[in-house]
From TrEMBL:
<feature type="transmembrane region" description="Helical">
    <location>
        <begin position="20"/>
        <end position="41"/>
    </location>
</feature>
<dbReference type="InterPro" id="IPR003097">
    <property type="entry name" value="CysJ-like_FAD-binding"/>
</dbReference>
<feature type="domain" description="Flavodoxin-like">
    <location>
        <begin position="84"/>
        <end position="228"/>
    </location>
</feature>
<dbReference type="Pfam" id="PF00258">
    <property type="entry name" value="Flavodoxin_1"/>
</dbReference>
<dbReference type="GO" id="GO:0003958">
    <property type="term" value="F:NADPH-hemoprotein reductase activity"/>
</dbReference>
<keyword id="KW-0256">Endoplasmic reticulum</keyword>
<dbReference type="InterPro" id="IPR017927">
    <property type="entry name" value="FAD-bd_FR_type"/>
</dbReference>
<keyword id="KW-0560">Oxidoreductase</keyword>
<keyword id="KW-0521">NADP</keyword>
<dbReference type="InterPro" id="IPR001433">
    <property type="entry name" value="OxRdtase_FAD/NAD-bd"/>
</dbReference>
<dbReference type="InterPro" id="IPR008254">
    <property type="entry name" value="Flavodoxin/NO_synth"/>
</dbReference>
<dbReference type="Pfam" id="PF00175">
    <property type="entry name" value="NAD_binding_1"/>
</dbReference>
<dbReference type="Pfam" id="PF00667">
    <property type="entry name" value="FAD_binding_1"/>
</dbReference>
<dbReference type="InterPro" id="IPR039261">
    <property type="entry name" value="FNR_nucleotide-bd"/>
</dbReference>
<keyword id="KW-0812">Transmembrane</keyword>
<keyword id="KW-0274">FAD</keyword>
<feature type="domain" description="FAD-binding FR-type">
    <location>
        <begin position="282"/>
        <end position="493"/>
    </location>
</feature>
Length: 649
């Protein structure tokens, strides 16, 4: 597809208030639905990053500007008298945050720690870490897609897979970040933990696994509580009992506005004003919005169709790619924080890492005003994690409020229960906490550091709420938003005559709209086009059957075969998996007899696994295979890229 076609791209964004997709809204939000179009954040999908190695670059990595060229982590450890290095594999910032907390806590055990990004380190040096006495490497690694590592851990992962380094003498521990609703739960951490052992390294403490579908913060602090005593025992050290109150970043406020001030850029100063290709996560393109319309016909849920104009941008969008959007935080929320902390939001400041060895000099692009930081660089809508509550407690003058915050940040069962109730279930963000605890008056710069989300992971609704207002009006300049494109492995077969089955209920339809447009194009060019079969489902035909007219037209002109499931239009709920069950012969004809492709897009939690199970059953029955053979058949389809899933929960 060329650029002009790509500008037809649309973006479907699920309803804010009852979004199925919760905190990965941002990711959802940026899934550019096919023909061009849909999504965003958090947040996530089924592609195999092996081929392009970057398929999950949600993140701006605003800090890479400040990256040091020296990638010897051993030299850094030695020159600063440290023995603990905590590596992170992170896409949306959680693993990076956990790594930072672990490194900081090392001081308590006379193990000064350093956080390290594997992408910026020569990981082969792990072989020599033992040259530092009592040294320890900890890994916090997230899993994505089909058991894939994050972008920044990819090279390290491949090095482990392909190499045979002798890691004898290397002490290590691993905490994995994953989500149980995905088929490949925490596979990266599980694999790396085992692989390090196989290569001769010594596991100092049991592998910890965090489940982001439940409470990953709880999993982490519970693991960490046992991890440190195990480390002490292993190295024969004792806790100093010191609490680590050392600040990672030093604040400097400016009386006069300095020459270089950031206003929401992700890396290069003025990059939003002086736009220069190539555009990517660090250098987003300010795209005009040409169309922004509601797709649901009735009901109080919403699904937006947005068309972004990328003409002239030199960006390439292929059907199946994701479109990422950088939203901004609600200004009322921003102003409230300024008021609650008693700060003039126009003040320009910078935060400077007190650790001179760190490759990350600032937590986000600095200097900037407090308003810019709160608006563009921080996720002020998330539920704060326990360490933030602990630090907030220091700023409470009322002992009752202080104790409550301290309790919630402890690992005591009643503390965890209170955190779950008061923070998670009641869904309190920082503004709610400050409003509900009037004696708590934190220093704003302190709050900024705690709330930094290097990857722009946003809570429900930030992007959707913001995009809803970006509607082009006649006679006015169209609204613009900063975007970039994330390449995907979710791809049509190269030959249009290869038959395909697409399973995409709800907003899972997004990439398939692009696929269908592409196939229609081939048909109009007179090329032979194979079976193009779509399974779509939604609640009610009259309510949320998105792109109904368009799909029916493709069906009428003979391109598309449609199977529709309207779950609430009859007494018994019917989903796409039920339709597939009935169509075993057709499915097998495509994937068994004719080497066709099968795609799944949408909800990972229920839909994707139900569909997968039905497909397995069909392979077993129609292909006359045992369960094991059917599993192997599906695996082979995956390796051959004949079966792809782009799913999220
Ligand atoms: C699009 C997407 C795909 C994901 N795929 C998986 C997966 O295959 N297996 C898994 O265990 N967790 C998966 N997760 C969950 C993440 O690993 C988990 O949320 C983790 O905490 C993210 O860490 P990070 O913020 O450091 O990137 C996925 C999350 C998203 C958003």
């Amino acid at each position: 597809m060329d650029e002009t076609e790509a500008k037809l791209g649309t973006q479907s964004i699920p309803e804010v208030s009852d979004s199925l997709f919760g905190t990965i809204d941002i990711i959802l939000l940026t899934l550019l639905v096919g023909g061009v179009s849909w999504y965003l954040l958090n947040r996530h999908k089924k592609t195999t990053p092996i081929a392009n190695g970057r398929s999950y670059s949600i993140q701006p990595t605003a800090m890479s500007l400040q990256t040091s060229s020296d990638n010897s982590f051993i030299k850094k450890l030695q020159s600063s008298g440290r023995s603990l290095v905590v590596f992170y594999g992170s896409q949306t910032g959680t693993a990076e945050e956990f790594a930072g907390r672990l490194a900081k806590e090392g001081v308590r055990y006379r193990m000064k720690g350093m956080v390290a990004d594997p992408e910026e380190c020569d990981m082969e040096e792990l072989v020599n870490l033992k040259s530092i006495p009592n040294s320890l490497a900890v890994f916090c690694l997230a899993t994505y897609g089909e058991g894939d590592p994050t972008d920044n851990a990819m090279e390290f992962y491949e090095w482990l897979q392909n190499g045979d380094a002798d890691l004898t003498g290397l002490n290590y521990a691993m905490f994995g970040l994953g989500n149980k609703t995905y088929e490949h739960y925490n596979e990266v951490a599980i694999y790396v933990d085992k692989r390090l052992e196989d290569l001769g390294a010594t596991r100092v403490f049991d592998l910890g696994l965090g489940d982001d579908d439940a409470n990953i913060e709880d999993d982490f602090i519970t693991w960490k509580d046992k991890f440190w005593p195990a480390v002490c025992e292993h190295f024969g050290i004792e806790s100093t009992g010191e609490d680590i109150s050392m600040r990672q970043y030093r604040l400097q406020e400016f009386d006069e506005i300095p020459e270089r001030v950031f206003y929401g850029e992700m890396a290069r100063l003025h990059s939003l004003k002086n736009q220069r290709p190539p555009y990517d996560a660090k250098n987003p393109y300010l795209s005009k919005i040409k169309v922004n319309r509601e797709l649901h016909k009735t009901g109080d849920r919403s699904c937006m169709h947005i068309e972004f104009d990328i003409e002239g941008s030199k960006m390439r969008y292929d059907a199946g790619d994701h479109l990422a959007v950088y939203p901004v935080n609600n200004s009322e929320l921003v102003e409230k924080i300024g008021k609650l902390c008693g700060k003039d939001l126009n003040t320009v400041f910078t935060l400077i890492n007190t650790d001179e060895e760190s490759s990350k000099k600032h937590p986000f692009p600095c200097p900037c005003t407090y308003r810019t930081a709160l608006t563009h660089y921080l996720d002020i809508t998330q539920n704060p994690r326990t360490h933030v509550l602990k630090e907030l407690s220091e700023y409470c003058s009322d002992p009752v409020e202080k104790e409550k915050l301290k309790l919630m940040s402890s690992t005591k069962p009643e503390g965890k229960a209170l955190y779950q109730k008061w923070i998670i279930e009641d869904n309190r963000n920082i503004v709610h906490i400050l409003e509900d605890m009037p004696s708590c008056q934190p220093a704003l710069d302190h709050l900024l550091v705690e709330y930094t989300t290097p990857t722009g992971r946003l809570n429900k609704g930030v992007a959707t709420t913001w995009l809803k207002l970006k509607v082009p009006k006649d006679g006015e300049e169209p609204p613009t938003v900063p975007i970039f494109i994330r390449k995907s492995q979710f791809r049509l077969p190269t030959k249009p005559q290869t038959p395909i089955i697409m399973i995409g209920p709800g907003t899972g339809l997004a990439p398939f709209r692009g696929f269908i447009q592409e196939r229609n194009n081939s048909k109009e060019e007179g090329k032979p086009v194979g079976d193009t079969i779509l399974y779509f489902g939604c609640r009610k035909r009259a309510e949320d059957f998105i792109y109904e007219e368009e799909l029916l037209e493709y069906e009428k002109n003979g391109l598309l075969k449609l199977h529709l499931a309207f779950s609430r239009d009859q007494a018994h709920k019917v989903y796409v998996s039920h339709l597939l069950e009935k169509e075993g012969d057709e499915v097998w004809k495509v994937i068994g007899d004719n080497n066709g492709h099968l795609y799944i897009c949408g909800d990972a939690k229920g839909m994707a696994s139900d569909v997968r199970n039905v497909i397995l059953k069909i392979i077993q029955e129609k292909g006359q295979m045992t369960e094991q053979q059917a599993q192997a058949y599906l695996k082979k389809m995956e390796t051959q890229k004949r079966m792809s899933a782009d799913v999220w929960s």
